[in-house]
């Protein structure tokens, strides 16, 4: 049972830093810290972070009633190719699903392009006889006589994990299940991932890739999770550990060990959960979340307090951020666009004299030139330092010394000299380019989703989000920005607001006017049971909520629209409702419907969730209180393009209701908020900073 | 402090982002499978004098150059002084827009402070324009459907309803056509709005300085790339299958100090079937092939495209004149990169790949008229690409088009067909020091015993992709009904009996360099992976069997 003294702990292990956050029973953040990630033994850095926040809050392990963990380990294992030796088994006659893929080059003009490495060479691609069809019927039985020989080949190839993906297994999984049973009889202890369990959607290439990726990291993640749990238990942790997933929910260690692919990209998901919660607390129905860190920027659309979903993303792209250059993974995820724009992104001038920023990053070692750790290339952070936007003694909790001279020298040498300008102009140009890149990515993401950015509130966080928010917003036609509390550890804070949940997307093709209602209800009953059983292991008490959706389109179109269904068995009368809901959403996105065109449904999704922690009651907006700056400092004004004095404030000294006008800097231990000359700021009753663009001041 | 050229570059980046956004919006709204699978659309921004400043990088190269020229043509046709805010012009004339009737091009003047400061334009492939429909059987352009000459589609925001009615009345897919035309209108308008917003944000009165910066920077870069090339003229001949007789395509490529000139003189004349190619479309694919090698990182615009010039005698099959039928102009259009590379590889032997399958292997299948459940499949498959000097060709990969291949499961879910096999074709990659990409072996039959109609318009059945510099040819395409059935020609209409299997083998790419020089270990790996047979390893590569 939880009590008023209980606390909950979240640990987000990133590539460079491990973020730890402790909240009390009322969801107030009571302590945060950033510690260095310890790559060889990630639990060490995590334990250190946990001890620090417990000490800061003066609570003991016995009071920790909830523990949520997210890690980049799964992602990194895929990027760094540190997974298991995987052998695939596909349907006889279809050995080359992986090699053939979508028959496409990801870069149109690249004559010397190489296809992405998809982890399993053709020598490790085996097949087995047997065939299901799209209507769930068995066309040919599983060739059980061939299983002995198959097991022998697996042994000869020294398979460490097997990925089985048989045609139409999403519709009828009998052959996959039977094959696993037969193989495990012959090879006890064999790790097998089945496509219908990992990703029960039609499209054999995507499903196979997802199954391979799961198999590839399964042995590694299973042993990591077991050890992590042991280490925290011996420290005194008594509650179960829950894992953050890419879909924005929490899941149990057992489920995570079975489907580790769902742990990929869980950090960014935490950020989106935080933004969605703040959207709900402030009643903002249309939000753009903007999370800019050291290496990348992540943008996510949040409508009606729910981050946009997707069912597919790409991992370990050969060319970072180029679509199609990676391995597609089809699992439920929070939809976001990630581009190579962070504090460490490196700038250069190409042979045409074009200034380029990113996607290469100086990382944290050597890091930007201003870190004085041997980095020579000018970065986004160097440009911010040169423009006076970062206070040298207070960067990253004061743990990093900032060398402004080194930043200016790098800018002058690598950008200024080739373009014939001074270091300050180079810094200004660099910022303009990277801010434009982020704004363009946001606009493109909105277009791809049939949405618009203009009316949205941007919720900005991450180490660099508050610093670049006004500059990106102006280019994206966004006029209102919210900087939450603790923006530097936003993802870990988000973990603590996630529900225990599990989502299943499964293919079942039908024309809307030929929908088999009884068959569909049986189909849903199966996946409801599967998802509820799983969620109950992580959330034994409390009511569970269901969200059912259908992915629909006009027959012949390539783009599907997600339509929410009633959370109950379907009735014949629901068909008319589905059609009306589809037409309403279609006309919202495309301004018209297409009368007479038949409608088809490809996939159905179910999400089962435990309740999320209750929202905090909105505090009344305090009366405006103009505040005086601690000091003023010259910065390069991004509106005028000239040096101007900016007011400097400490965030912790700003009272609720504080108001101030740009140009100004608001400094806190883990980040700085830039209030541009065309924005003014106000602190609300919950301590969020609101930045509002003043159209009169626009350039 | 002065704002450096970086401000101009930020605006250039903005224009590039805007045209990509417009392209994505068009693809999302499209009804035509070819738009969805190939991204067969385009979007561009132009300055007041009609010079192209930015164009979306879309799935097919067929719009490179064609859009730039089309806007110039339309702008010359309609006096700028008579243009009003909200006007939009349109045509699908194959010789102005994009080589066949299905491609509709729209152009909209953009106003700022009361005068025209530029244009937005976009193109999309409409599903059906009447006539005999998509196929090579038309005897002339009149058989192929409705041609709309340059006209004003929207006048100060009001759509010409009669014009739209005519387009709908002449189509088997009126609803889809109307939807696609509205999507094009929305695309032009959204581009114009974004351009206008950008000018306000950056305080611009016109686009002149920005246009000069974009065009001059791109021209300078392109000329620098050309300056690095050897100078001279190189000739090449490519024989293609044609419809019922082989056709010779001729090219002479001249590399001069400040431009490239490609001349198709000597090419065979047009034929009576709709595989003829208007010059704008042949130019698009040819220039695409050249730009893959020469300055590929410079965006397409008036400055980067101007030094690439293409000509050909009127009436040759790569400069078809009205009223020649042109519906399937892409079949031969996609072969022009191999023709161009035949010239360029003599000048730049290390940089140009061997010939590839090149023409995409469409597999359109429909129900027979007496079938109870109608269906229509537009499946797309590809063969192998040519070997590069340092890299093997890519197996089962589209080039020069950027088409997406089909997935078996989604195909079988929507139509009564059953695939029995889809694997790489062993030994189909042309042997060489680097090997050509492999083709595919595909077997498909009816799932319910009904006969199926098949419409073929492919290439490289009689003329394989040639190797270069001692490399061997890729395997030819091979199509038959039943494993022991006779080989079918590359074009025509066929009936697959309900109890027979279609065996559809796509071509391999050519090899590069003598196969005997291929690294032994690499040959062994190919044998181990089943890409090359042990027999071929010994007899062609000289390895151990």
Please give the count of helices of chain A. 16
The gross shape of chain B turns out to be globular
Class per helix and strand makeup of chain B: alpha+beta
What is the typical, i.e. mean, pLDDT of chain B?
Answer: 93
Total helical segments of chain B? 13
Sequence of strands across the biggest β-sheet of chain B: 2-1-5-4-3-6-7
- Distance between the first and last residues' Cα of chain B: 73 Å
What is the quaternary state of this protein?
heterodimer
Greatest interface (CB-CB under 8 A), with counts per chain: A-B, 82 and 88 residues
Average pLDDT number of chain A: 91
Rg on CA atoms of chain B, Å: 24 Å
- Spans of at least 5 consecutive residues with low confidence of chain B: none
Helix content bin of chain B: 25-40%
Terminal residue distance of chain A: 58 Å
Describe the structure.
- The complex is a heterodimer of chains A (699) and B (545).
- With 699 residues, chain A is α/β, with parallel strands linked by helices.
- Chain A is 30% helix and 27% strand.
- Chain A is built from 16 helices and 36 strands.
- In chain A, the strands form nine sheets. In chain A, strands 13, 14, 15, 20, 23, 24, 29, 32, 35 and 36 form a ten-stranded mixed β-sheet that branches.
- The model of chain A has no long low-confidence stretch (mean pLDDT 91).
- Helices cover 29% and strands 22% of the residues of chain B.
- In chain B, a hairpin with a 4-residue loop joins strand 1 and strand 2.
- Chain B is α+β, with helices and mostly antiparallel strands.
- In chain B, the strands form four sheets. Chain B has a seven-stranded antiparallel β-sheet, with helices on both faces.
- The mean pLDDT of chain B is 93.
- Classes of the chains: A alpha/beta (699), B alpha+beta (545).
